Amino acid sequence: YRFQAVEAQDPYKNSLTDWKNVIEKAGNLRPEFILINSVNVMMKYPEFPTEKQFENELNLLGDYVKTLNVRKVHMMLTKSNTIEERTKKLLVQGARFLNRMNVMCLIEPLYLPGIPYYLRSYDEALNLVKELNEPNLKIMFDTYHCQRLHGNITYYIDLLKDHIGHVQISQVPLRDSPFNDGELNYDFILKKLSTVYDDYIGLEYYSDHTTDSFDWVKKYAE
C-alpha cells in the first residue's frame, strides 16, 4: 500500500537535515504531509511556558512546517485540567503564528485517563473556537476520543460541522482498524462525515501489521 498523504505525530525526533535528505531521496514518490503535532509544550515545561518560550517553540514548529510543507498543525498545549486565560492566550498566539504561514491550527479534546489536559470535551472545544474567533482555528474530530468522551458520534458531527478542520478514525474500544469488530459502524459514520467534510482522513489506529488491515481503504478510496 502506498498512501498519498501522511501525518507525523512527532517529527522532531528527526532533524530538519534528516527530513530534507528523506524528501530529496523520495523525489516524486514523496507523500503529502497533511498534519503534524506542535512541539509538546506540556511535556517540555512543568508549568505554563512564558510567551517568549512559546514563541521559541513556535519558531521551531515553523521550520518543520516549511520543510515538510504542512498545511495543518495540532496545537498541543497545557496540562491544566481547565481552560485558563493563559491557555487561551497561548492558543491565540499559536493560531496567529500559523495563520501567517497559511496553516490551519487544530485543537482536539483527548481521552487520557489519569493524565491532565486542558481540553476534555467537544462542547468545550466548540465554545473555545467560537470565543477566540481566529479564522484558521478549527477542531480535530477524532472518532475514538469522541466516542470515549461522549458517545453520540452523529450528534457531534452535526454540532461541529462548520468547525471541523481534520478527521481521524479508529475502532472503539481497542483503537484498532475501523472495520474490526467494535462499537462504531463505519459504513454509516464515513457516509455521515462525507456530508460535512471533504479532505483527508487520518488513520490513527494500532495496526496488526498486515496488509489485511488496509483492505477496507480500497473501497472508500474509489
Structural features, described:
The protein has 222 residues and is of the alpha/beta class. The chain has one domain: Divalent-metal-dependent TIM barrel enzymes (TIM Barrel). Helices cover 41% and strands 14% of the residues. It is built from nine helices and seven strands, in the order βαβααβαβαβααβαβα. It has a seven-stranded parallel sheet. Strand 4 (104-107), helix 5 and strand 5 (137-142) form a beta-alpha-beta unit. Helix 1 packs parallel to helix 3 (51-68). The radius of gyration is 17 Å and the shape is globular. The model has no long low-confidence stretch (mean pLDDT 93). InterPro entries: HyI-like, Sugar_Epim/Isomerase, Xyl_isomerase-like_sf, Xyl_isomerase-like_TIM-brl.
Brief descriptors of the model:
14% strand; isomerase; 7 strands; globular; 7-stranded parallel sheet; 222 residues; TIM Barrel; Xyl_isomerase-like_sf; Putative hydroxypyruvate isomerase
